[in-house]
Amino acid sequence: MLGKKLRTEDDRIKAVAKARKKKRKKMIKTKYGQKAVRHSKRGVYSCTYAVVIAFLVIVMILFSFLNKGNVNILIGFFGLGTCAMAVIGIWLGMKGFREREKIYTTCKVGITVNAVFLAVMVGLFVRGLM
């Protein structure tokens, strides 16, 4: 018998007891034997978009500061891109509320942070046009 171990009746009993113990331990971790509730997938994507937007805004502000305000149009396009990403993040957060039996905290956080970034970027563009 290559690679296979002979199992006795005692080994089988121990394996069944171990499996039963593992199942019981798993049941204790969950509420009333139900599966664990997870975060909304689209809410997590919305928060990820918010983090990416925050990074891009910091990079744009730093780049503009280092060049003393003399930046090319590429930074403006990055700004418009962050506005588009903020709208997509808000949309994903709204879609995340449709997922059933999920935790919606990430949806709420993603919508809020993306809305703040969108308002800031729109305010910057309006101030820049005046």
UniProtKB/TrEMBL annotation:
Entry keywords, A to Z: Membrane, Transmembrane, Transmembrane helix
Xref: Gene3D superfamilies: Multidrug efflux transporter AcrB transmembrane domain
Transmembrane intervals: 44-66, 72-94, 106-126
UniProt cross-references to InterPro entries, sorted A to Z: DUF6142
UniProt-recorded name of the protein: DUF6142 family protein
Source species of the chain: Dorea amylophila
